[in-house]
Amino acid sequence: MADLTSNFVGIKSTNPFWLASAPPTDKEYNVRRAFEAGWGGVVWKTLGEEGPPVVNVNGPRYGAIWGADRRLLGLNNIELITDRPLEVNLREMKAVKRDYPDRALIASIMVPCVEEAWKAILPLVEETGADGIELNCGCPHGMSERGMGAAVGQNPDLIEQITRWCKQYTRMPVIVKLTPNITDVRKPAQAAKRGGADAVSLINTINSITSVDLDDFAPEPTIDGKGTHGGYCGPAVKPIALNMVAEIARDPMTADLPISGIGGVTTWRDAAEFLTLGAGNVQVCTAAMTYGFGIIKEMTAGLSLWMDKKGFTSVDQITGRAVPNVTDWQYLNLNYVTKAVIDQDKCISCGRCYAACEDTSHQAILMKEGRVFEVDDSECVACNLCVNVCPVEECITMKRVAPGSLDERTGNVVPAEKGDWTQHPNNPMASAAE
Amino acid sequence: MTNSPQTDGVVAARLDDATLAAHFDDLYPDLDAHEARVAADRCYFCHDAPCITACPTDIDIPLFIRQIQAGQPDAAARTILSQNILGSMCARVCPTETLCEGSCVRNDAEGNPVEIGRLQRYATDGLLAANEHPFTRAPATGKSVAVVGAGPAGLSAAHRLAMLGHAVTMYDTRPKPGGLNEYGIAAYKAANGIAQAEVDWLLQIGGIAVETGKALGGDLTLDGLKGQFDAVFLGVGLQGVNALRVPGEDLPSVRDAVDFIEELRQTEDKSTLAIGRHVVVIGGGMTAVDAAVQSRLLGAEHVSIVYRRDRGAMSASDYELDHAATEGVTILTNAMPVEVSAAGVTFAYTRSGAAGLEKTGETFTLPADQVFKAIGQTLKGQPEALALEGGKIAIDAQGRTSVAGVWAGGDCATGGEDLTVTAVAQGRDAALDIHAALGA
């Protein structure tokens, strides 16, 4: 059976599933329940500096979007960092770590961008026995208005600076949590690395308004008739997170920087995908908030079973396995020609492929007598839209046109050799194919 | 309650009041908003959707389902009602398994169609409950139209004509408008007064005068109507009932099923209705099923439907027959009545022979305190001037009869399938043709 134990930048945990710094990890009671349920680690909800704690709104702090059967697809929150006194959190962290020495306990921290603030808090955290720290450079609401969270994460120089301070004032591993609310996620990752970070974690939540109340004309969640952008998370953000993780994993400047993958991890499969794109472990929040801590059992069992089937014995063997296959558009093989094929035995004749192709694509699906739908290879550009809109799994598939065969659309024989944009005659920058 | 299903003879109150109330309540309750959204999400919004083709009134089904899914059941209701003004009753009585739902691609996908009927009911019932009438009348045309028969065909024609600006007078022989929706359908399919509520709502369009207690051959003549109105639409239904033509048919235990169904619909207190311990229903259509099922619901101990041909030839849908079987009705086929006596009905087994249906020579007798005849209805009292075809008023595709200025539709006319929904379609289409003919 696969060994799920994880060693992420020297932090050991019983499995690669950590609970992200968020409401589920706000206090001892929750964290003990999480560890009892089987979570490998916890990133304690973000600590602020000593003194009067922040306050939260007293109206709704979450908004959501749902599927038809009210399956939660995306969650948004305007909760701030912990609103409990620093000493209470530290005391509880120490007690939990003492009782669960085999689990990872990470302290998320957000203090003002001055050296004294970091210098002051780090020894207090270290004293709890925490395994590491995560710098909250991502919180997109409230704290960012005060020059912290995403306000730091959007400024690579500040990231580098606070990372450097942390490496200077603690021996604990330093993970820098990145915000997705930027244009190029590689820049803050590079800054974290320059500052000496042991790892980055991403993504934090995405600026969002989940919906608008059309009676009050106010964004949701609404507090006394007003709303503000909150942080979006949950299954809906996973594709964005996967790309950002992959961008950092394949950037030569950060390729060796460990990544803790975050963003919509809901099942073992989501986790496996993050791992293959370069994550060393994953952090989970929304799935736990939706279903409770019990989901960890599906995640660990599922990842273990998949690893067994694939012959992987440790998590390390998965990490980054798909990264070499993430490339730039210009290197995609233009000589790889496919055509949609409709399995008539599976087809239920709904005609969605036809409507999609006829109205919005390339008029490559023919509707014949008796609601029979067929692909016209002379028009099909293999866009895959029909596959995506077909309600029947595996009914429409993309089949490769074998090299040496005729592509009926272009009238050309499909070349056997790879050919990409860098060599294409239409590309003015093409390198001459000698 | 002094009687039980085992009490001999024809007696009332075989079941207690609470049981009777439950038996005659809605067969299926309305979907709630969440159920409707989940059910609506199953629709694939098919291209050139087969369900639309299958609907006799051409309702844009994928559109109305999408409107439910998008949180606007009232918009869905408008989509439905613009094609089928009796959408609420049709949602209850349409044989959806052979029409829209029968053509749903989900049948191929998983053998389980989108619940189009229930979704239609959810949308239309909501609008009715809110008592919103979304249609308005065009400016008055100065033309007047007589609609004879306030059943589905007549109501549909009258509403469309009124909407187009014509002045409509709608006649019916019975005390209330509604036709078969009010008098001829099982009570549990139209619980809580929905048929009258729908008519009341429909009449909110305005411009429709309703005169009850008037029938062709009685107060009305075709020539009189033609003289008084610019056009006439006949939706008089089938008022005659076929006879068994066997000895004993005139015994007091023998009754027309349509009369029984009508009395049951019009009787608020079901505990006053007498029903036999042993009931035999002769026939194979929806009327037979409605009579048989409701006999059971009133507490009859043994109820049988007996049909002379095989099950495949029965005009009642499989869904209805399965429902009857679930309610404890015994369905016997290939048996025709040869004699009714005070003790029961004697049947002869039948088979298909060279010359059609023939008796095998074997007979059996079912005990019966009560016998319901449900072997078909016929046109009765129609004006002699009208050409008939197959026992119905002959009409063309636009609903025109052989007499100029006279249109017809619904069960009394050719071209339908004796369904509420086809009657609605014919009434609507005839109204449009009348409108065109009047050149308004």
Short description:
The complex is a heterodimer of chains A (434) and B (440). Chain A is 28% helix and 21% strand.
Structure description:
The complex is a heterodimer of chains A (434) and B (440). With 434 residues, chain A is of the alpha/beta class. Chain A contains twelve helices and 22 strands. Chain A has two domains: 6-325, TIM Barrel (Alpha-Beta Barrel), CATH 3.20.20; 330-423, Alpha-Beta Plaits. In chain A, strand 1 (6-8) and strand 2 form a beta hairpin. The relative contact order of chain A is 0.11. The mean pLDDT of chain A is 96. The mean pLDDT of chain B is 96. Helix content of chain B is 35%, strand content 20%. In chain B, strands 4-3-2-5-19 form a five-stranded parallel sheet, sandwiched between helices. In chain B, strands 7-15-9-10-11 form a five-stranded parallel sheet. In chain B, strands 12-13-14 form a three-stranded antiparallel sheet, with no helix packed on it. Chain B is α/β, with parallel strands linked by helices and 440 residues long. Chain B has helices spanning 17-23, 33-41, 50-54, 61-69, 73-83, 87-93, 100-103, 106-110, 116-129, 152-163, 180-183, 194-203, 222-228, 257-266, 286-298, 318-326, 420-438; strands at 10-11, 144-148, 167-172, 208-212, 231-234, 240-241, 254-256, 275-276, 278-283, 302-306, 329-332, 335-340, 344-353, 356-367, 370-374, 377-378, 388-389, 392-393, 406-408. Chain B has three domains: 11-24 and 242-376, FAD/NAD(P)-binding domain; 33-129, Fumarate Reductase Iron-sulfur Protein, Chain B, domain 2 (Orthogonal Bundle), CATH 1.10.1060.10; 144-239 and 379-438, FAD/NAD(P)-binding domain, CATH 3.50.50. Chain B is globular, with a radius of gyration of 22 Å. The longest helix of chain B has 19 residues, at 420-438. The chains are: A alpha/beta (434), B alpha/beta (440). Chains A and B meet through helix 11 of A and helix 2 and helix 8 of B.
